[in-house]
Amino acid sequence: MNVLFIGYGRMGGALGDAWLKGGLVERLSIVDPGLSADAAAGRYARLQDVPTDQAFELIVLAVKPAYASSALAGLSDRQCSQATVVSVAAGVTQASLSDAVGQRCPVVRAMPNTPVLLGAGCTGLYAGAQLDAARKAVIGRLFEAVGAAYWVDEEQQLDAVTAISGSGPAYYHLFSEALAEAGVKLGLNPELARNLAAQTAFGAATLQHQAHADFIELRVAVTSPNGTTAAAIEVFESQRKLRALLEQATSAAHRRSVELSKGA
Ligand SMILES: NC(=O)c1ccc[n+]([C@@H]2O[C@H](COP(=O)([O-])OP(=O)(O)OC[C@H]3O[C@@H](n4cnc5c(N)ncnc54)[C@H](OP(=O)(O)O)[C@@H]3O)[C@@H](O)[C@H]2O)c1
């Protein structure tokens, strides 16, 4: 597959490197002003430097949202002729990206998260009705190569994906930070408290990741009546405090995602 990346920073680089390494794509062309240009290796500083007679099956847009539409300007008809554009730019709507490519090729939006960098990501994908099943399957496979990938039916659902899995890694990091701080207050040295929190997060995530794992069953399995875990869970669940807080926090993230997609 002949792929063009526009933007090859943290996210673009993680995707492109993983797809090349996994043999999912044979050839990458990259436009990024931060890389040293080398036309023979398919690296260009500007889109205008890419040969206009080259056709791409996939064009991945991975620049900051503010530059997303302008970065697509200048694609030639030939470059677009067989392409699907996949944009990872947070909050930039399909309609504005379709306008930016002059409606010449279908546009898919992807909302990955940072663990994509380690092949453990979670990506929400939205295509709309214009994309055929074969292209959808190819794009799904590409994002499954860096973790899990899930299609949503409505573009607005990407705001909810952003609030849950897009921003989600930061929620878990905050929980680990607070757990480590609590460990220090209980008399552990900071390094040990940090390691206990991180390894526990990893172990719990590994359990949750097993096929058919049920969150409630996993919790109940370590919560003996009248035991230590039960004492802590009672505090979390008192007046559903933790759940209410999460609902508030994810609503705030969702609201902000909607605002950003409206350019606020
Ligand atoms: N990182 C994440 O975890 C994450 C998660 C979900 C979605 N995203 C989305 O991914 C996109 C990229 O984020 P990132 O973290 O990878 O940013 P990044 O590391 O700053 O990468 C963006 C790259 O694009 C280059 N660039 C800027 N203008 C360009 C243009 N006109 N043509 C080609 N390349 C251009 C930048 O070069 P210069 O630095 O020289 O300007 C930079 O190398 C964003 O839209 C973000 O919303 C990121």
Second-tier CATH architecture of the largest domain: 3-Layer(aba) Sandwich
* Poorly predicted tracts of residues: none
Task: Report mean pLDDT, rounded to a whole number.
Answer: 95
Share of helix, binned: 40-55%
Structural class estimated from helices and strands: alpha/beta
The H-level CATH homologous superfamily of the largest domain, spelled out, is NAD(P)-binding Rossmann-like Domain
* CATH fold description of the largest domain: Rossmann fold
Helical region count? 11
- Strand order in the largest sheet: 3-2-1-4-5-6-7-8
Q: What's the number of extended β-strand segments?
A: 8
Our count of domains comes out at: 2
Order of helices and strands: EHEEEHHEHEEHEHHHHHH
Q: Any idea what the radius of gyration is? A: 22 Å
Write a concise synopsis of the structure shown.
The chain has helices spanning 10-21, 68-72, 77-80, 94-100, 133-144, 157-166, 168-185, 190-208, 215-221, 228-237, 241-261, and strands at 2-6, 27-31, 43-44, 58-61, 84-87, 107-111, 121-126, 147-151. By secondary structure, the chain is of the alpha/beta class. It has two domains: 2-162, 3-Layer(aba) Sandwich (Rossmann fold); 168-261, ProC C-terminal domain-like (ProC C-terminal domain-like fold).
